[in-house]
Design goal:
By secondary structure, the protein is an alpha/beta fold. It has helices spanning 4-8, 23-33, 63-71, 90-98, 109-118, 132-142, 147-161, 176-188, 196-202, 204-211; strands at 12-17, 37-39, 43-44, 59-60, 75-81, 84-89, 102-106, 123-128, 169-172. The protein has a domain at 4-39 and 101-211: P-loop containing nucleotide triphosphate hydrolases (Rossmann fold), CATH 3.40.50.300. The chain has a five-stranded parallel beta sheet, with helices on both faces. Helix 6 packs antiparallel against helix 7. The protein starts with a helix and ends with a helix.
Length: 212
């Protein structure tokens, strides 16, 4: 018999995609629509910005402290991005799922594999763009990066998308509202229709176009 504490625990959902796929917008919309979904507060060695609060936006630590936490095995995932370290602590994950919330981790495919190794029950969701052309248009339309950075992100997209088979679930962000409904179904309702085997068969032509 399952204990009450087990039935009320949340689950971990890792959401990954190539830059420009719309992952961040989908996660933001999911969080707005579902109070029972939450994101964790990451540790980082990045300098604290004037409008940020320690323990609210990030846990700000120096590199020596961060590396000590790595050595102690206290992160479920960590990565270095543009010279700064970022990581999700096991303690933070436990805090959220113990409260019965669905934890959403928005990280890259490598971080997703780290989480799966530490937390085998984690649910890995990969989001595809409808075409590479759409992906590039979205990257340019964001206005966040210079052309060289856009090109770098776009060139890396094919390699990232090629990792889709290491995930548990797959959705395509062609229509935002439909993709949001599907993401919500995976996290809160019935994820079975979006399992990787069925979706690979359904989108085999798209996957071939995106990865070859």
């Amino acid at each position: 018999m399952t204990s009450k504490s087990n039935t009320t625990r949340g689950q971990v959902f890792v959401i990954a995609a190539a830059s420009g796929t719309g992952k961040t917008s989908l996660v933001s919309a999911l969080l707005s629509a579902h109070p029972n979904a939450a994101v964790s507060i990451s540790h980082t060695t990045r300098a604290q910005r004037p409008n940020e609060q320690d323990g609210i936006n990030y846990f700000f630590v120096d590199r020596a402290r961060f590396e000590d936490l790595i050595q102690q095995g206290l992160f479920v995932e960590h990565a270095e991005v543009f010279g700064n370290l970022y990581g999700t602590s096991t303690e933070e994950v436990e805090r959220i799922i113990a409260a019965g919330k669905q934890l959403i981790l928005e990280i890259d495919w490598q971080g997703a594999q780290q989480v799966k190794a530490k937390l085998p029950d984690a649910n890995l969701i990969f989001i595809l763009p409808p075409t590479l052309e759409t992906l590039k248009t979205r990257l340019l339309g964001r206005g966040q990066d210079d052309l060289d950075t856009v090109e770098q992100r776009f060139n890396g997209a094919r390699d990232e998308i090629a990792q889709y088979h290491t995930f548990d679930y797959l959705i395509v962000n062609d229509n935002f509202q439909l993709a949001l409904q599907q993401l919500s179904a995976i996290v809160f309702e019935d994820p079975a229709p979006f399992e990787i085997q069925a979706q690979t068969a359904r989108y085999i032509d798209l996957l071939t176009a995106l990865t070859t």
